[in-house]
Amino acid sequence: MEEYLKRQNFSKRLMQLSHKLKNKSVIIYGAGKLFQTIIKNYDLSVFNIKGITDKKYLPEDEGKLESGFKIIPYTKFSPLDADYILIAVQEYLPIKNYLKKFKSEQNIIPLVKFNLVQNIAKKILYGFKRICFRKTNTFVLIKTNGQKVYNPKIKNLQIKFLGSNNHIEIHAPYFVTKSVDIVLGSNNKIIIEHSNNHHIVKIKMHNSNYLHIGAKTTISDVLIWEPAANKKIEIGRDCMLSYGIEIKNSDGHTVYDRTTREIHNSAENIKIGSHVWICRNATLMKGSSIPSNCVIGACSLVNKKYTEEYCIIAGNPAKIVKQNINWDRRGPHEF
Question: What is the pTM of this model?
Answer without folding.
Answer: 0.74
